[in-house]
Amino acid sequence: MPAKGKHRRTRTQRLTRTLAVATTGGAALALPLIGAAGAHAAQSDSAQTAQTYTVRAGDSLAKIADAQHVSGGWKKLYEDNRDAVGADPSLIRPGLKLTVGAEAEASTQSKDAAADSASATAEKKTAQPAADTSTASTGFVAPVDGATEGTPYHQSGSMWSSGYHTGTDFVVPTGTSVKAVGAGTVVTAGWGGAYGNQVVIKLADGYYAQYAHLSSISVSSGDAVTAGQQLGLSGATGNVTGPHLHFEIRTTPDYGSDIDPLAYLRSQGVSV
User: Fold this and answer.
1) Residue 3 falls within a domain, yes or no?
2) Domain match, 95 and 132 both
């Protein structure tokens, strides 16, 4: 018989499994916790289907697409990596990382550069200079003054996916005034990937003029411009080896519709 006033206390057992307890109207329901980490890992494994390829010297999108067996060829590879490559698929630099096998995400560098360019454009818009009046008799002018020609139009090379240079380079120092060759409307003004800061205007005759690698931009999309008006300043943004102006004349605003830019300007009475 136990001693008076003393009772044996039942020792509570420790649970070895983790339970989630939900109380409903005073009743406790014990539920085992689901392994969320395991489900997370399964999702990550299923998403990691793409491969990363680092561009080497001498590479082109066509060469990479062929070697990596990309369905759809270089056009598909460019489409999946457009934000990283930029507006010109013929300009890819060694060290650039491409996603093969799935759509690539926009590179942080391109996004940051675009934001910086937009900010700079907004600041400069209030200080836009007046148009230059030194136009040719036809109303056309050269895109820059006193420049020497660098890489010519249609120069062949493996660095260009199209197999040739799609514009003409004018060798000028950073900060040189870049002008509208004729009257028209700005259709693009901002970051262009490999082209760096660029401006594209639709000329009055329906052709398009592109200006690339600018250090700053003085106009915005939708602006009407006159021949000789400053569009920005030359520079070395984007994929370049030194400061210059890359200039193109196109039949559409898109890459691949280029024509000889110097022949076009000469047909308009401009001495270049």
Assistant:
1) no
2) no
> What's this model's pTM, rounded to 2 decimal places?
0.52
Which residue type does 213 have? H
pLDDT tens profile 42-85: 444 434 467 889 888 777 788 888 888 888 888 888 888 888 88
Q: 19 lies in a domain? A: no
Residues 88 and 119 in one domain: no
Q: Which residues fall within 8 angstroms of residue 38, CB to CB, at 6 or more apart?
A: none
Tokens of residue 46, six digits: 């299923």
| HEC assignment per residue over the chain | CCCCCCCCCCCCCCCCCCEEEEEECCEEEEEECCCHHHHHHHHHHHHCCCEEEECCCCCCHHHHHHHCCCCCHHHHHHHHCHHHHECCCCCCCCCCEEEECCCCCCCHHHHHHHHHHHHHHHHHHCCCCCCCCCCCCCCCCCCCCCCEECCCCCCECCCCCCCECCCEEEECCCCCEEECCCCEEEEEEEECECCCEEEEEEECCCCEEEEEEEEEECCCCCCEECCCCEEEEEECCCCCCCCEEEEEEECCCCCCCEECHHHHHHHCCCCC
CATH number of domain containing 258: 2.70.70.10
